[in-house]
Amino acid sequence: MRRIALSVAEKVRSSRLNPSSNMLSKRYFKTKVRNIDLFIKTRRKPKKNSLRKHKRLFGKSISERPDSIEKREEFGHWGIDTVLGRRSNDHALLILTERKTHYHLLLPLASKTAEAVDEALKRLKSQYGLMFSRVFKSITADNGSEFANLNVHGIDIYYTHPYSAWERATNNERHNGLVRRLIPKGTAISELSLSQIGRVQDWCNTLPRKILGYRQPAELFFREIERLTSEFQNS
User: Fold this and answer.
1) Higher-confidence residue: 65 or 41?
2) Where does the Integrase catalytic domain lie (predicted)?
3) Domain locations in the chain as residue ranges
4) How many CB atoms lie within 10 A of CB 182?
């Protein structure tokens, strides 16, 4: 305690005897001394006020998304993301995750471009036929350039705010982590066959999930498909 008291006293004493740096600065700047005349000041790089450019929002904002989608009360609302391969110019995987059932769809992409994503969604639309608009009611994406032109008729497209991909809130990173267990970073996706990608999708969808009460996404997803099919046939 005595040592601390002496240290504090010394600081007080020196502050009384020596002018503060602020006082010195004020005295210098009242004169006509230029920055170039001050050696230490010229060594410091001037601080730049860098403003982060905002990415543009491609379409409808996530703020306009209904609460029923946010609460996962209704089937047919999806999050979308991509997983890259070994290199930035390698093939990629398009990952669609249904919000209510947590069901995965893995679609191979020739490249991580808007054109490749649009082509994959057109194939998906062809595959589901008349049921497409019932199974895919909305898609929520981030502002990645590959999602710049999600022109899919009959689907509401929502975009997260710039630099806020987490707003998709379907735990995309966790779902991508499941895929990465079988397709680690550095894997050349271009070398994977459709059957290999299909096996990864099946594994993700048959894994019991705590958030689903330890039920499988596939179980819940196909139950919804059966319900929609029955409604469609009776309409």
Assistant:
1) 65
2) 62-225
3) 60-234
4) 15
Supply the pLDDT for residue 106: 97
Q: 60-234 adopts what CATH topology? A: Nucleotidyltransferase; domain 5 (3.30.420)
Residue 174: the pLDDT is 72
Contact indicator for 83, 93 with CB cutoff of 8 Å: yes
Q: Please give the average per-residue pLDDT across 81-101, as a whole number.
A: 89
Instruction: Kindly state the tokens that stand for 108.
Output: 């191979």
Q: What is the pLDDT of residue 2?
A: 44
Is a pLDDT exceeding 80 seen at residue 133? yes
> Cα 56 vs. chain centroid, distance in angstroms?
15
Nearest to 139 by CA among 198, 83, 62: 62
Place of tokens 């230490």: 40
